[in-house]
Structures are given as structure tokens and as C-alpha cells.
């Protein structure tokens, strides 16, 4: 079942075209990652999908035009966006209660949601007293309180320590297991590789590659070079040529060969090859 | 309706934790009380202080509070969070308007206890305060809608508020200013607060400002939604 459908989506700010005909589909129950460097158009695309910005072309969620989405669609979606804030003078519980009332969700669901994001015991803390990681978790809690079918996450782990980022990843996997669809934007290739079922690489407002992360890496891999790891941990790269067969055979005879595989690039290298630019720029 | 009630509850809690916002709503009744207590024994002084500070309260407090609330929501990104939770812009503006007018009238009602009003004078006083408060709150919404952050909103709201709040007071001492103040809604509010009579001139000036400010609010509401 298609949850998100984009067909030739365009958006310009004055003379500058930010999105130049983006087309993609996201199916129910998958984690979809949109990768691109800063300024590639990721946040603009999320703003369009969440009905915050008009666009050219066709953008739909749940089969409804994004420019016309209303309360019924917002009840089925949640969002953790960088430019979305919380009420800093209020406590975690007050913030959660507000969103529970807005989404007609029982207040009893708050405790369970706070526990799910690891904020149990922080109900009475004011938001301004929370660390960046805790704020991000609270944003996530507010976004998932009403059990949305589609969750937008714009750079959800940006600036967080690895342990907190890993906890948020685990929560995202649990949400997928419960049937939710996740739309993630990031410039963290490792996060996208480990977490996403499918990704799209966005460069200057256009999708330059799309598919499963491992499949993309394989597609852009090269069998012209072999990557070898020996039993003592050394790593070798050898040209995949007949004259190197002896070296490999010798390592095998001496039982020193731990791993041998083709030299597949990571997503950052794929992006660099496709666009000539670093993903993290 | 659920959204409006939820937003009113949120705004009440948030404002109680916001000392500067509380100050704006309480400062004029408090200053009037102090002045009347200190100097009010002289004949007519309490009435003059009540009229002066009640006009300032009705002109300044709703304007600055409404613009601050809206611009802060925009600056902190909470307005976007609300919109993405299914809150319509209209529900948001209605809830903000209700909150600002209610709190301003509640704190402004203290002025009624500071002087000996007849029943008719008190009714005219309350009606004029309500009209002035609603118009100031509408002006505050317009400032908030056009401002990206709190400092930009204050940069616009404070000068407007000072003119509308101080001109009726200065008009007491200068005939030219008095003629100008007649065409200002706060000038008309001040006249009714003092005389206790709702005149046709008051109704006409209020109607003109109501049409202008409502039109401007609707125009900004539509253009800012795009």
C-alpha cells in the first residue's frame, strides 16, 4: 500500500529552484531515508509533505493532495522536525497533555509513551531544563503519542551522542515493527544504511539514486579490486587480477585469510561518485 | 472547540510561568493603585488616575501581549508544531484572542474597584474597556502575524502601544493633541471612561477601527497562510 507518492514535485524560492522534479513512492511499514547534504532540499520536501508549503507537481500522502491535508490526515501523521518546537516554560507532562488533548488521545497513554522514549521520571521537569537529547526524545514522544501511521523525522539524531542516537534508532525500529511508516531525512550515511529499508539520494533538488542501501552500494561497487582481511587483523586491497591469485592462495594455505570481498563503496562514496560532492557538506 | 479549549489551558499555564507577560497585564492596575493610595485623597485625583491608567491598560497590554504570544510561537517553532497537530490557524487566532481579551479584562476590572462608580458609569466603563481591549488585541495579532520573532514584534508593538496609550493622557494638556486623540480609538475610550457616557462619536470611531483592523487581520491571515 502506497503511503507517500511524489510525482514531479518542484519548488522554487524566487529564482532558485530547490526541488526540480522529485518522484518517489513510500510503501506502508517501511523506513524510507532521504539522504543529501545541507541545502539539497530535504527539509523543503518534508515541509511539502506535511502540508506546510505548496509545490508544483503532485504530492500525496494517504492518497490525499498534500496542499489540502487537514485535521483527519494530521491525526494519522506525526513529525519530529528541526524547526518545530516545544513549550519551554511548561513541563514535559504539560506539553504531552496539550498534544494528547489536540489528538483526542487518553491522558493515560502519556506515561507509556514517555517510558518508550526513556523519559519516565521526567514528567515534572520543565522543557528548558532538559538536555538536547532529552528534548529530542520529548519531541518524539509528542509525535508518537497518538500512534501515527506515518512519522516524519527530519535529522532526528543530529547533534546527539551515539548512545542517545542508538536508543532513538531502536525506538524507530519498534515503531516500524508496530506497522508505522517512517520518512527519515538525514545526511548521516551510516544511520541511513543501518536503519532504512530504502533510501533516495537527493542532490540539488533531484533524486540521483534510489533503492535498498546495500543494493545501491553493490550497484556502484567495483569488482576490479578485492578487499582482504587477514587473521591478524591486517587489511589489504588487491587488484582483481590473475597474477594476485597466488597471494590469495598463499593466505588460504597458511590459514591467514579471515575475509575476502569485493571493494564496495559506502553511501558517502556512492554520493561522491554520482555528484562529485561529499554527502556531509 | 477542543483545540481552542486545549490552547486556552496551555496559554494560561504558560503565561503564569512568564513573568514579563504577567507584568504587562498587571503593571497599570498596580501603578494606578499605588498612585491613588498615595495621592488619591485630593479631589478628582482618583478618577483621573483610573481614567489615565485604564486607557493605557486597554491600549498597551493586549497589543503587546497578543503580538508577543504569536511571535514567540513563530520564533520557537511551536506554532508549526500546533499546525502539524491539526490545529487550524483560525482556531489558534480565536484562542489567542479569547485569552488576551479575557485576561486583560480580568486584570482591568481592578480599576472599577479604585473609584466610586455609578452603575451606568461602570457599565459604560466596562463597555469602553472591552472595545479598546478587543481593538488592541486585533492590532497585536496583526503585529504578531507580520513579525518573525519577539524582538521584531516588540519593535513594532511598543511604539504603536505608546502612541495609543500616551496620546489620550497628553491630550489633557494640549488642545491640538486633544483634537488628534478624538480620532484615535484609545482617545475615545479615554473620553468614555471619564464621562461614563457612550456617545455616537465613540460608536463611529470604534466601528471604523473595527472594520480596518478586522480587514487587516483577515488580509494577513490569508496572505500569511500561503
List keywords for this structure.
heterodimer, A: 281 residues, alpha/beta, Rossmann fold, 3 domains, six-stranded mixed beta sheet, 10 helices, globular, B: 226 residues, mainly alpha, 83% helix
CATH superfamily of the largest domain in chain A: P-loop containing nucleotide triphosphate hydrolases
What can be said about the biggest beta sheet of chain B? none
CATH topology of the largest domain in chain A: Rossmann fold
Overall body shape of chain B: globular
- What is the percent of helical residues of chain A? 25-40%
Portion in helices of chain B = over 70%
Report low-confidence residues of chain B grouped into runs of 5 or more: none
**Share in β-strands of chain A:** 25-35%
CATH architecture of the largest domain in chain A: 3-Layer(aba) Sandwich
Kindly describe this structure.
The complex is a heterodimer of chains A (281) and B (226). Chain A is an alpha/beta fold and 281 residues long. Chain A has three domains: 167 residues, P-loop containing nucleotide triphosphate hydrolases (Rossmann fold, 3-Layer(aba) Sandwich), CATH 3.40.50.300; 58 residues; 42 residues, no CATH class. Helix content of chain A is 33%, strand content 30%. In chain A, the strands form three sheets. Chain A has a six-stranded mixed beta sheet with strand order 6-7-8-3-9-10, sandwiched between helices. A four-stranded antiparallel beta sheet of chain A has the order 2-1-4-5, with helices on one face. Chain A has a three-stranded antiparallel beta sheet with strand order 12-11-13. In chain A, a hairpin with a 2-residue loop joins strand 4 and strand 5. In chain A, helix 3 packs parallel to helix 5 and helix 4 crosses helix 5. The longest helix of chain A has 16 residues. The two termini of chain A are 35 Å apart. Chain B is mainly α and 226 residues long. Chain B has one domain. Helix content of chain B is 83%, strand content 0%. The mean pLDDT of chain B is 88. The interface between A and B is medium-sized, with 28 and 24 residues.
Amino acid at each position: 500500500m502506497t503511503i507517500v507518492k511524489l510525482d514531479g514535485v518542484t519548488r522554487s524560492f524566487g529564482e532558485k529552484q530547490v526541488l526540480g522534479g522529485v518522484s518517489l513512492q513510500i510503501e506502508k511499514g517501511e523506513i524510507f531515508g532521504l539522504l543529501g547534504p545541507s541545502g539539497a532540499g530535504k527539509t523543503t520536501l518534508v515541509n511539502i509533505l506535511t502540508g506546510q508549503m505548496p509545490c508544483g507537481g503532485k504530492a500525496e500522502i494517504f492518497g490525499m493532495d498534500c496542499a489540502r491535508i487537514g485535521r483527519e490526515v494530521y491525526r494519522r501523521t506525526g513529525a519530529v522536525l528541526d524547526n518545530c518546537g516545544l513549550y519551554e516554560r511548561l513541563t514535559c507532562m504539560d506539553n504531552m497533555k496539550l498534544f494528547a488533548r489536540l489528538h483526542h488521545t487518553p491522558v493515560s497513554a502519556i506515561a507509556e509513551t514517555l517510558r518508550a522514549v526513556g523519559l519516565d521520571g521526567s514528567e515534572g521537569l520543565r522543557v528548558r531544563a532538559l538536555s538536547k537529547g532529552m528534548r529530542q526524545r520529548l519531541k518524539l514522544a509528542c509525535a508518537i503519542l497518538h500512534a501515527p501511521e506515518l512519522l516524519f523525522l527530519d535529522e532526528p539524531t543530529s547533534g546527539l551522542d551515539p548512545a542517545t542516537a542508538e536508543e532513538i534508532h531502536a525506538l524507530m525500529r519498534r515503531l516500524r515493527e508496530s506497522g508505522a511508516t517512517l520518512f527519515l531525512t538525514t545526511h548521516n550515511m551510516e544511520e541511513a544504511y543501518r536503519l532504512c529499508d530504502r533510501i533516495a539520494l537527493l542532490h540539488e533538488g533531484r533524486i540521483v539514486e534510489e533503492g535498498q542501501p546495500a543494493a545501491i552500494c553493490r550497484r556502484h561497487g567495483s569488482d576490479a579490486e578485492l578487499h582482504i582481511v587477514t587473521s591478524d587483523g591486517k587489511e589489504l586491497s588487491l587488484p582483481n587480477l590473475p597474477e594476485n591469485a597466488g597471494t590469495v592462495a598463499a593466505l588460504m594455505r597458511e590459514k591467514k585469510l579471515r575475509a575476502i570481498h569485493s571493494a564496495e563503496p559506502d553511501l558517502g562514496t556512492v554520493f561522491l561518485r554520482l555528484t562529485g560532492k561529499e554527502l556531509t557538506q | 472547540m477542543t483545540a481552542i479549549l486545549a490552547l486556552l489551558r496551555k496559554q494560561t499555564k504558560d503565561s503564569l510561568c512568564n513573568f514579563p507577560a504577567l507584568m504587562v497585564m498587571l503593571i497599570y492596575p498596580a501603578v494606578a493603585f499605588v498612585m491613588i493610595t498615595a495621592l488619591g485623597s485630593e479631589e478628582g485625583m482618583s478618577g483621573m488616575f483610573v481614567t489615565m491608567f485604564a486607557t493605557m491598560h486597554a491600549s498597551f497590554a493586549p497589543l503587546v501581549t497578543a503580538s508577543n504570544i504569536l511571535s514567540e510561537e513563530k520564533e520557537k517553532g511551536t506554532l508549526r508544531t500546533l499546525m502539524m497537530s491539526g490545529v487550524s490557524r483560525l482556531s489558534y487566532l480565536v484562542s489567542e484572542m479569547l485569552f488576551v481579551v479575557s485576561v486583560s479584562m480580568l486584570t482591568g476590572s481592578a480599576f472599577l474597584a479604585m473609584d466610586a462608580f455609578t452603575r451606568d458609569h461602570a457599565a459604560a466603563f466596562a463597555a469602553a474597556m472591552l472595545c479598546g481591549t478587543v481593538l488592541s488585541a486585533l492590532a497585536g495579532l496583526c503585529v504578531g502575524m507580520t513579525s518573525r520573532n519577539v524582538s521584531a514584534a516588540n519593535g513594532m508593538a511598543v511604539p504603536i502601544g505608546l502612541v495609543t496609550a500616551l496620546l489620550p493622557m497628553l491630550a489633557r494638556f494640549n488642545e491640538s493633541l486633544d483634537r488628534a486623540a478624538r480620532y484615535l480609538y484609545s482617545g475615545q475610550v479615554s473620553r468614555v471612561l471619564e464621562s461614563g457616557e457612550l456617545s455616537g462619536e465613540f460608536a463611529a470611531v470604534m466601528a471604523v477601527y473595527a472594520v480596518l483592523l478586522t480587514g487587516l487581520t483577515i488580509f494577513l491571515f490569508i496572505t500569511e497562510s500561503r
